[in-house]
Amino acid sequence: MAFHFSKAFKVFVETSSFVFARIIANAYFVMFSAVIAVFFLFGPVFFALAAPLPDIFLAAGVFVFLFYWSFFRKRILYVLKSSAIVVVSEFLSGRNIPVSMQASFGFNLIKKKFHSLKNFRKFEQFPKKVMRKIYGVLGFVSFIPNVNSAVLSSVISYVFADNSVDYYTSLRDSLVLFYQRKNFILFQIFAMQIFSYIIFFLSYLVFFYLFNPFIVVFSYPFDLFAYFLVFLLLLLIYSSFISHFLICWQIVFFIETIKTDDPKKSKRDVLENLSPEFNQISAKAKVFVPLKSLASRHLLASLETSSKKKNFLSSLDGIIKDKDALEEHIKGEDALSELVSEVSNIDKVTKKKRVKIRLEEEKQKSFEKYEKEREYNTVFNLLLEFLGNELGKREKFEISSLQRQGENWAAIVLINKEKFAFLLDSKGKVIEFEEKQ
After folding, report:
1. Residue ranges of the alpha helices (H) in 47-116?
2. CA 156, 157, 162 angle in degrees (round to 5)?
3. 302 CB-near residues (< 8 Å, 6+ apart)
4. Which residue, among 387, 152, 435, has the nearest Cα to 269 in the 3D structure?
5. Of all helices (H) and strands (E), which one includes residue 399?
6. Angle, in degrees to the nearest 10, between helices 276-284 and 117-135
């Protein structure tokens, strides 16, 4: 199913700690909101204010409540939501976090990557501005409550899907992947939000019919206070359960939709011409390889740590460049050894000397030739190993040229038909690489 409802529900259960955290936070919000309601509803009665002051008092109460709700969302719910995005992305990447430390883990990982929550908010401004350009004629969706926020959360979740790649590279690829299927993704997320609004509306109708017979017996302003408490109760349930489930649902849907897609270079070029903010993101990205999937996003981490798998060369034995040359060289050494043993049986010293000198010269030439080829083959094989480890078997790559450049080696590699220049030292360690235009 395109909506991935069952998988989203599984992730929702595994990250249920955020539901309880939201219940506690929302319970405090409900209590303070009730205090606000008591003051602004019963204040005019207590002070015996004449019309139209009670109505003004009530309007002021609505304004204060909305201000308090905005503050609560930005200072409390935003932190919980951001931490939930991190943890859900970790679960989708196959990493389990204990329930007792999920909220703190998500918050600490944000601080580790961005140093502070303030920097993370600034980071979010880049995709927000880019998405306005991506929407195009669908720009009206940004005015629909929570749709724009849901899309942003989904795009940001890709940043935390793999810790081995810097976040600007992940963000660039995430925006490209979103752009490639924007109509489908926007429609599905829009449908999810509409579904949640329908659930909220139907729930309020059920609550209204359940509590209305008890509320109508009260007179003003007690009846308004009772209706407000019903609304707060529903808001508590919605913000605790439905909101977190929507986060899980939207992230699961986005990751599952684009995880096998290629961030095409042609689409990236379109975005670079479309949005100056995307250019800033692309300029700060450290990896230029057009990676295909989350599993392929280890190239930069391997470049920094130079970690290699010892057994990889055995699987590449059939394509080692110098295999035939090495066998011929071994045969040549055996032949030379036999020739030496035959020459040793010759009695004439002068002939022995001539043969020995000739053999020494041949050995020296063979050794010098082998030394040159050995360094070439060592660098070639280590580069091949590096690419095979980090790009995987599904990626198509080919070393088109490898030449000595001073003390280092320069290679041109075709990765999915795209040219990349690699620089390696004499020991075969990758120093740097860049995309060739």
Report:
1. 53-72, 78-92, 102-114
2. 110
3. 386, 389, 390
4. 435
5. strand 397-405
6. 130
368-412 residue pLDDT tens: 665 667 777 778 878 777 777 767 656 677 788 888 888 788 888
Nearest Cα to 15, choosing from 100, 77, 107?
A: 100
**The residue to which tokens 């599952």 are assigned:** 256
User: How many Cα neighbours within 13 Å face the side chain of 42?
Assistant: 11
Spatial neighbors of 165 by CB under 8 A, at least 6 apart, are 287, 297, 298, 299, 300, 301
- Determine phi and psi for 429, rounding to 5 degrees: -85, 130
For residue 45, give the 3-state DSSP assignment. Answer: helix
Give the pair of three-digit tokens for residue 224. 């308004």
pTM of the model: 0.62
Nearest Cα neighbor of 340 from 357, 320, 321, 323 is: 357
Tokens 């199913």 found at: 1
Distance CA 217, CA 365 (A): 109
Distance of alpha carbon 410 from its chain centroid, rounded? 31
